[in-house]
Design a protein that fits this description.
Elements (H helix, E strand, L loop, with lengths): L2 E3 L14 H17 L1 H11 L8 E2 L1 H10 L2 H18 L7 E5 L2 E9 L2 E5 L8 H14 L3 E5 L10 H10 L3 E3 L3 H10 L9 E3 L4 H10 L4 E2 L7 E6 L5 H12 L6 E6 L2 H15 L5 H10 L2 E4 L3 H11 L3 E5 L15 E4 L6 H5 L25 E9 L1 H17 L3 H8 L4
Parallel strand pairs: 1-12, 5-6, 5-8, 6-7, 8-9, 10-11, 10-13, 11-12, 13-14
Antiparallel strand pairs: 2-7, 3-4, 4-15
Helix pairs in contact: 1-2, 1-7, 1-8, 3-6, 4-5, 5-6, 7-8, 9-10, 9-11, 14-15
């Protein structure tokens, strides 16, 4: 049974730190790959994926065959999702600009990150949608080289859907590498894997720990934790919808978190009952039950304002506003990864088809970070041009500032142009 609480003193307390033993193991793996390259990766495939690989790289022919063998109706769904994601992300393209005043020219130039590595999880679940959500904005940004790495199965293969989507989107390379070793290979390079400049994509705690270790050598999108869903709902909402949405998060992982904030004690009880009913027929019942019983909760608050205050403190990855005229409450939301408005906008629409990105900040990091976007795959350079007259006009101010900081060579670099 899910917990129903009328006090919220501990709602903001959640464990977000990667355990030390995982951090140490990830560090050892990263060092091994950095030192031994492909040899380490082949050995890790034997240990962790239980497969003896002949090659770390998926050939273009393998990708083409996977595309041809993938269900045609599913490919139509992928095409629709692809178009929606492209249409949304095209609006995120940054504009260059130039400002000129009194002989001084200032500007900003946006350029794509040249080399991108994308991690796609494997293991207990397969996520072809991750390929769409990471590759499409990178393509729109104009990245020159995009590679993908994902764990192989015990027979050395990669699931057809992941390869089919990679083929459709024109991914340059696909590698059969999983876990912390994949992150190390992308960051430092091996005989087979060429290093990239930024790594994106979700993964388990070992992947997250490895991303933290290599950050600085390469860029990363974020350190992702277990998935989260928070729902704000009043007495007018359907408890079956709410229960179903909470379970859609719970089935991800036993550490996933689903929270309902409501002003109605009756709705809270009805949702709790409905969760128990729906759990009984859920294929991933064991995982979902652990999430519901250990990580999830229902909070009965005194007012909707209190619900929004609690939500902003939690800064959830996914936030569903299940209220009539939900868009009217958008201004109350300060911190959230992605927001779903109304009773007929379950979080699943964002995972697959709507067009918004599903790679989102977790563990309250939505207080300072954003969803993956085209912006994640570009960097910005500023530029400036003074002419002789404009530099002469600002010279004394620059010299004074430089000498205040005791940087005489800075001051002289201006002075020498007019001495």
């Amino acid at each position: 049974m899910i917990k129903i609480l009328d006090k919220h003193a501990k709602i903001l307390e959640q464990e977000s730190e990667i355990p030390l033993e995982i951090q140490q193991k990830a560090f050892d793996i990263v060092c091994d790959v950095k030192e031994n390259g492909d040899k380490a990766l082949f050995e890790m495939a034997k240990i962790y994926d239980h497969v003896e690989l002949k090659s770390l790289e998926v050939s273009e022919d393998e990708m083409k065959v996977a595309y041809q063998q993938t269900d045609k109706e599913f490919l139509k769904v992928i095409e629709k999702a692809k178009n929606n994601i492209e249409d949304f992300h095209k609006h995120q393209l940054s504009n260059n600009f130039i400002v000129e005043k009194d002989g001084i020219l200032l500007g900003q130039r946006t350029t794509p990150i040249e080399r991108i590595g994308i991690y796609v999880p494997g293991g207990r679940a397969l996520y072809p949608s991750t390929v769409l959500m990471n590759v499409i904005p990178a393509k729109i940004a104009g990245c020159e080289y995009i590679c993908l790495t994902t764990p192989p199965t015990s027979d050395g293969s990669i699931c057809n859907e992941i390869l089919a989507i990679s083929y459709m989107l024109g991914v340059d390379k696909v590698f059969k590498i999983g876990g912390a070793g994949a992150i190390a290979a992308l960051a430092y390079g091996t005989e087979t894997v060429k290093p990239v400049y930024k790594i994106t994509g979700p993964g388990n705690a070992f992947v997250a720990a490895a991303k933290r270790i290599v950050f600085g050598k390469v860029g990363i999108d974020m350190i992702a934790g277990p998935s989260e869903l928070l729902i704000i709902a009043d007495q007018n909402q359907n408890p079956k919808f709410i229960a179903a949405d909470m379970l859609s998060q719970a089935e991800h992982d036993s550490l996933a978190r689903a929270i309902l904030l409501t002003t109605s004690q009756d709705l809270a009880q009805n949702v709790a009952t409905e969760i128990d009913i729906q759990l009984e027929s859920l294929p991933k019942q064991e995982i979902a039950r652990a999430s519901i019983e250990n990580q999830s909760m229902i909070i009965v608050a005194d007012s909707l304002d209190e619900c929004f205050e609690l939500s902003n403190g939690l800064a959830p990855e996914h936030l569903e506003i299940m209220l009539d005229n939900a868009i009217d409450y958008l201004s109350k939301i300060k911190n959230a990864g992605s927001i779903f408005l109304g009773s007929f906008t379950p979080e699943a629409v964002g995972d697959y088809l709507a067009g918004v990105n599903h790679t989102l900040p977790t563990n309250q990091t939505a207080k300072f970070s954003s969803a993956l976007s085209v912006e994640s795959f570009v960097k910005k350079s500023t530029f400036v041009r003074y002419n002789e007259s404009s530099l002469k006009s600002d010279a004394n101010d620059i010299i004074q500032f430089a000498r205040l900081e005791q940087l005489q060579a800075h001051a002289r670099s201006v002075e020498c142009r007019f001495s």
